Amino acid sequence: MRILITGAAGFLGSHLCERFIDEGHYVIGMDNFVTGNIDNLTCLAGNPKFLFIRHDVANFIFVPGEIDAVLHFASPASPNPASPYGYTNLPIQTMKAGALGTHNTLGVARSHNARYLLASTSEIYGDPLEHPQTESYWGHVDPIGVRSVYDEAKRFAEALTMAYHRYHGINTRIARIFNTFGPRMHLDDGRVVPNFIQQALRSEALTIYGDGSQTRSFCYVSDLVEGIYRLLLSEEHNPVNIGNPNEIAILELAETINKMIGNQAEVILKPASRLGDDPQRRRPDITRAKEILGWEPTIPLEEGLKRTIPYFQQKLGLV
Ligand code: NAD
Ligand code: UDP
User: Fold this and answer.
1) Whose alpha carbon is nearest atom 16 of ligand 2?
2) Does the C-beta of 308 come closer than 6 Å to ligand 1?
3) How far is the CA of 94 from the centre of ligand 2 (A)?
4) Which residue's CA lies nearest to atom 17 of ligand 1?
5) Cβ within 8 Å of residue 287, ≥6 positions away
6) Does 199 sit in the ligand 1 pocket, CB within 6 Å?
7) Residues 96-152: pLDDT tens digits?
8) pLDDT tens column, 45-95
9) By the 8 A CB rule, do 71 and 119 touch?
10) What is the DSSP string of 186-201?
């Protein structure tokens, strides 16, 4: 296949480009570097199966040659207002990537008769009242909250994707991605795993927003990539949760990372209001992914952290 991947210079996008090329496909990566980094694509420089186009997906997209598949991953993804890459600091760009970017990439899929995969998110469930979250749950989202620029753009993106599927017959898929981590997350990304690992490596106190009782369920990047790969090859048009159901409190995550790195510093509790409508619990029900894709994560949290810590050690010049 000839595949267009937007958000190619980002964390997930760069791993996906690599995976699809490894499988023998030709990849056109697109990014405008708003939160991504060209260094993430160093391993593909000069690869004859890879073409990079610098472009903002909010503007009309022209891709030379035939396209067999489109994966739309371009969007800021960190909620942290303390990060320059947090979507609360990029609110209009985030809404445009989710809304106009989805419209433009669906347009590419339509004009090439290509299959399409939207990177949606567990954030469409908001601060969920149902636990764990199944795909049939409609969510609990504040339409004007701090996170709404991301949540509502992704909800619009899902609705538009289904409209193109139902009205134009486009061969679409929707991945509802839960918290994923691994090498190539930006040093200043602001999400919890890169923050905690860097703080621990610097022997600093880990910053916990709130009392740390809020939970997340962390998926290692190679598992996520496998799930996305299988979903693209499937014929499933309804949303599928892709994530690791192993739920952990943020305080316990901090203790785990401190223990693995040998950091003696205490944790610091910071006000939860920092992140506005911070979801209190999050855990995917992955029954559908198991049944439809034969997929489930294989990398436990500590193993994933073991593979991620050396990346940050290297980026911080500690090895
Ligand atoms: P990231 O910030 O590392 O990557 C996003 C990439 O998109 C960046 O390279 C950025 O420059 C690019 N981009 C943003 N707006 C763009 C635009 N208008 N035009 C072109 N490029 C643009 O984040 P990530 O974690 O790799 O997330 C990738 C996708 O996966 C996002 O759509 C995000 O919503 C989704 N997702 C990620 C997670 C996760 O835990 N990593 C969870 C749920 C959903
Ligand atoms: N968090 C934290 N300290 C940090 C960064 C994040 O305690 O330095 C918390 C955050 O409040 C949230 C959880 O960790 O409850 C996960 O945050 P992240 O930004 O990784 O992503 P989210 O799942 O909220 O989109």
Assistant:
1) 192
2) no
3) 18
4) 56
5) 134
6) no
7) 999 999 999 999 999 999 999 999 999 999 999 999 999 999 999 999 998 999 999
8) 999 999 999 999 999 999 999 999 999 999 999 999 999 999 999 999 999
9) yes
10) -TT---HHHHHHHHHH
CB of residue 121 inside a 6 A radius of ligand 1: yes
Note the ligand closest to the C-alpha atom of 72: 1
Q: Which ligand is nearest to the CA of 11?
A: 1
71 lines ligand 1 (CB under 6 A): no
Confidence (pTM): 0.98
Cβ-Cβ contacts under 8 Å for 139 (sequence gap 6 or more): 124, 125, 126, 128, 155
Of the candidates 31, 151, 147, 154, which has an alpha carbon nearest to the alpha carbon of residue 89?
147
List the domain boundaries for the chain.
2-182+219-244+283-297
Q: Is 150 a catalytic residue?
A: yes
Q: Quick one: CATH architecture of 2-182+219-244+283-297?
A: 3-Layer(aba) Sandwich (3.40)
Q: Is the CB of 32 inside a 6 Å radius of any atom of ligand 1?
A: yes
Catalytic residue (one of 150, 164, 209, 220): 150
| Per-residue pLDDT at 277 exceeds 90 | no
**Phi first, then psi: what are they for 237, rounded to 5°?**
-100, -20
Beta pairing partners, 2: 26
